[in-house]
Amino acid sequence: MEVSPFRGICYNQRIVGDLARALCPPYDVITPEQQKLYYEENSYNAIRLEFPAESLEPTGDRYQRAAITFQQWLKHGVLQLDSVSSFYLHDHRFEYSGEKKVRRGLIARVKLEPWGSGIYPHEETFPKAKSDRLHLMRACRANFSPLLSLYHDSEQKVAPILSEASRAKPMIETSVLSLSTGGGQDEGGEAHTLWAITDPDIKRELSQFLSSQPLYIADGHHRYETALNYQQERAQEQSDSFASSVIASPDLIGTKQSPTPMKSGEAFQYVMMELVDFSDPGLVVLPLHRLVRGIAPSILGGLEDQLRSFFVLESVPLKAGSPDSSGLPADSCLGILGLQPGSLVVLRRRHPDSIGVSLEAMMPGNRSQAYREFGVSILNHIILDKVLSGAKDLDVAYTVDLKEAYQQIKEGKYQLAFLLNPPQPEMVKAVADAQDRMPSKSTYFYPKLPAGLIVNPLD
Question: Most exposed of 25, 89, 180, 290 (fewest Cβ within 10 Å)?
Fold first, then answer.
């Protein structure tokens, strides 16, 4: 992979004021209610670029409105293009489970390559989300939020450089903002510190090391695949334009006025990423629990007996009426709320020698071992596809919040909540290294990177 610095576009804090109120999460975790809140939070909030609303602005194509807003902000100095190319060091401060954490990342421009060519996915994607992002990218020709990718700094070559860079005066330092950032986990708010790394020697050193490392997409699969599609579109446009120029003026070939083909350094051939070390202490990965409804009473009534064919079931009484925030026992596959009133049912794998059906025999034969051992895979293939195969109209929703899952069951909005263990970063890497993919919505890297901190122009 080619990892390089770039000239980013940043908010002008003299106009915007407190930058914390100009940022928003990426589009895929913003609810309609949150979208409205971000619109009201600040007239320059990046929500108008990242996720423009249909109902909160005048009629018209929302993607074109985002493009017009983007150009107006550039024209009036609300957004400014940096004078020199930089790597942007980003400290993302947040609180999780009562503990203050910092996730350190390096925002860079990464050359787009097909999956498996130095860049590896770990989750399946949805076509609809890619279509939405492609419309926005076509209109605005920019990346408003970075993808989150992981790398291994096993020799500790990058960490000392970043540590030294963080001693300088930051270019951006936001206050703590507690406005919801998605996922129901915004306990103590978030804050951001950003430094621009401009020294040519340091930039060269960082680029050489990171370009030699495989990168693993943690968050942003849809946006990466969209960027690949956009790259192909722009390359085709340039190719067609070049061919038309040659046909129109064949006598110019070889002269100073000769039309030029696409150059390798074109901005649309890159995408903005924030690169984080696998061993970073601030790297938090949460599970996405499943909420399910649409199960006929006859099927639900026999579910426990069917599950005993595959799992050992343990009933754990709920303390204070809701699940323990510490999650599931480490040796469990998953847990179920709603199966037994007042209890969490914990599922563990049956021993191969015990009576029952082998989980291994029921898992897809064309999948990697890492995929087969993953909790979401077991849930999808064994429970949803096999045990609940008679429930033809299952409605599945997702949440990272245990309290929300419990509340949805308590209020009868969903019949069952399937709770999952947090996926470890090593599991993500193992699935990706096997050139396999976890089911969609298997991981939730918390907190989400903000949109608007740095913008990457694609022209």
Answer: 180
C-alpha radius of gyration, the chain, whole number: 24
The angle that helices 221-248 and 127-140 make with each other, rounded to 10 degrees, is 50
- pLDDT mean over 28-36: 90
What is the CB neighbour count within 10 angstroms for residue 82? Answer: 17
The token pair that represents 278 in the structure block: 């696998």
User: How many domains in the chain?
Assistant: 2
Length of the chain: 459
Q: Give yes or no: residues 137 and 60 share one domain.
A: yes
User: Is residue 437 a contact partner of residue 224, using CB atoms and an 8 Å limit?
Assistant: no
- Any alpha helices (H) in 6-61, and if so which ranges? 13-16, 32-41, 47-50
Q: How confident is the model at residue 211 (pLDDT cuts 50, 70, 90)?
A: very high
Greatest Cα pair distance in the chain: 84
Mean pLDDT confidence for 83-111: 96
- Tell whether 260 and 339 lie within a shared domain: no
Separation of alpha carbons 370 and 374, rounded Å: 7
The rounded distance, in Å, linking the Cα atoms of 75 and 414 is: 49
Residue of 101, 128, 113, 308 whose CA lies nearest to 190? 101
Domain that holds residue 45: 3-285+447-457
The DSSP result for 213-281, as a single string, is S-EEEEE-HHHHHHHHHHHHHHHHHHHHHHHHHHHH-GGGTTSTT------TT-GGGEEEEEEEETT-T
d(CA 146, CA 14): 24
> Does one domain contain both 202 and 334?
no
Same-domain check for residues 376 and 245: no
- Vertex 436, ends 430 and 438: CA angle to 5°? 85
Same domain, 47 and 127: yes
Q: How confident is the model at residue 1 (pLDDT cuts 50, 70, 90)?
A: confident
Shared domain check, 224 and 77: yes
Q: What are phi and psi of 76, to 5 degrees?
A: -95, 5
Query: What would the pLDDT profile of 213-245 be if each residue is shown by its tens digit?
Result: 999 999 999 999 999 999 999 999 987 765 566
Residue of 59, 29, 33 whose CA lies nearest to 148: 29
Question: Token pair 């985002």 is at which residue?
Answer: 66
Q: What is the CATH number of the domain that holds 339?
A: 3.30.1760
Tokens representing 38? 């971000």
Q: How many CB atoms lie within 10 A of CB 77?
A: 10
Name the pLDDT band for 262 (thresholds 50, 70, 90): very low
Confidence band, pLDDT 50/70/90 cuts, at residue 327: confident
**Who wins on pLDDT, 132 or 356?**
132
- Check whether 130 has a pLDDT greater than 50: yes
Task: State residue 262 phi and psi, 5-degree precision.
Answer: -60, 140
